[in-house]
Every structure is written in structure tokens, then in C-alpha cells.
Amino acid sequence: MNTLSRLSALVVLLSCSLASGISPAEAGRQTDAARRHLNQVERQLRDAQDDVARAKRDLEDAQRRQKQLPDQIEQGKKQISSLKNRLAEAGKSLDEARGKIAPAEQAVKQKQEAVAPAQRQVPKVQAQVDAVRIRLWTQIQQKPDYRAAADAQAAAQKRYDQACEACLAELGKVESYAKLAQELARREQELEELRQAKAPVSRVGAASTQWIETKNEVERRKQTAMEGDVAIATTRSELKTATDALDALKAKYEQEMKLHPDLSPLLAELEKARKAAQAAEANLDKARAELAAASKAIEQSQSQEKSAREKLQQEEQELARKQKSLNSADDDVKDARRRIDNREDDVNRLRRERERAEDTLRDKLRQESRARSSGKKK
Which of 63, 86, 138, 169 could make an SS bond with 308 (beta carbons 3.0 to 4.6 A apart)? Predict the structure, then answer.
């Protein structure tokens, strides 16, 4: 039954009710029915209005896509073209980097092979230099001036040692020092016995501390006695003079020996061998660095290529999505307009039906009021 039929039925029912004089209960039921019908019409009207608003939003979205997507698609095509160029460049860089690996590996191998012979040459020449040095120094040590200086230094050393021994011997006669030396010997023996017995660490540590303190005091007494001894001071000065003279003579002969025809060429050869070894090691380090750089370049190029490929895939998917959205925009516009027209017709129809339902409800309310009044009079 359509809306007009239902309305006609209500009008007929109302006329019959007025003519026949219905009971208050029946009048109440008809009022409730009219109220439910009005609520139903209002819900249908709200739904229709919501559908119109939704269709208008869909229409705006479709029209926006019709307006904006062509430019976005064009920009997307340009971006894809740029990404394809980047991908090609990354692939080219990767090929170039891979092409450098084999030569770099070969260079490292060659430099490694050159290092070992260069390094072996250094000790070989060094042995020759040492042999000549020993021979020349043996000859130098037989020279009268060198023997005299060496003998003088040895004699001065002997006098100094004797002075020190004499000083310490006199110190040993001092009672306080003798007791201190005896205490040191006792503490040293106690410490050794504790260690042999594997005594607790705390006891060994305490005994060791006492031994060290006593030993330091003994050494301090020795040092004080020796610093104040006149004979030691005199012989120390004589020893320094003799040692300086011998060192000066050694330096003189060292310089002369470097110019000796047997040694000079070997020293030059040794320097040359050292430089050659250093150069070989430096060349190997450089080759290894170039190989590492080539390997890193491959990693970077692979990363760039992967990034460009992933970005290209994303852009192509986005372009396809936008193209699909644009292709459907015309149909979406037509569909939204059709929905708007249909539901606006429903809105207008339902508004009229709502007015009739409101009139019917008012009539039913008056009818119910009259029926209740009549019931009270009876």
C-alpha cells in the first residue's frame, strides 16, 4: 500500500469514527498508530536527507578528482621518467664499480707479492752491515788511543766500585744499620716461610709490607751514606770524565766508520732496502684502500639502485591508482547526481507525507479527547 492509499484509509477511518462515535480505547489506539506512522515518516525523511548529503559529498569528491587528478597524473609521469633515469644511472654506476673490483683485487695480490721480497732484503743487508761493523769495531778497539781511553774508563769504574764497597763496609760497622740489616734478613725469611706454608693472603700481605718498608729504610741509609762519602764523590767525577772521553772517541770513530769503503756502500744499500720495503708496504696499503673503496662503491650503488627501483614501483602504483580514480570519476559524478535526484524526490515526497501525518495525528488527538470527554459524561 503506498502513502496516498494509507492516507486515504486513515481519512475514511477518521470519518467512520466521527460518524459512529468510537470508544476512548479505540481512539487511543488510533492516536498511537498515527504517532507511529509520523515517526516512521520522519525517520525515512532523515535517511533520505542523509543520503542526499552523502551523495553531494561524493559528487564534490568526484568533481575534485576530475579537476586535480590530470595535473597529478602528469606530475607522476614526470616523476616516473626521472626515477627511470636515476635507476639507469645507478645501474651504470654499479656496473662501473663492479668493473673495478677485479683490477683492484689483482693489484692487491701483486702488491702483496712485492712486499715479502722487499722485507726480506732488509735483514739480509742488515746482517752484512752488522758483520762489517763488528770487524771494523774490533779493529778500532785495538787502536792505542781507544785502548787507552777504555782502560782509563775501566780503571775509573773500578775505583768507583771500590769506593762504594768501602763506604758500605764502614756503614755495616754502624750498630743501628747492622740491626736494621739483620731485621731485613729476618723479615725476608719470615715472608719466604709464609709463602712456602701457603699462609692466608692477609698474613702474607702484611709480612710483605713490613719487608718492603724495612728494605726501603736500608736503601735510604745506604744512599745517604754514599752521597756523603768524599771518595765516592771523587771517583764518580773521575768515572764521568773517563766515560765522556770514551763516548766522544766512540762517536768520532762511528762517524769515520760510516765513511769506510767497506761499510758506506752497505749503509746506502740498507737505506735503499728499507725505503723499498716501506714503499712496497705503502703500495699494498693503497691497493687495499682502493679495493675497499671499490667494494663500498658497489654497496652504495646497489643501495641506490634498490632505492630507485622501490621508489619507481611505488610511483607507478600510485599513478595507476590515480588513473583508475580519474577513469571512474565520470561514472561517479553521474551516479552521485542520479542518487541526489532520486533522493531529493524522496525528500520532497516525504515532507508532504510528514505534513499529512502531522495533520492526521492532530485529528486523532482531537478525536481521542472528544471520546474521553463523552465517556466521562456517560
Answer: 86
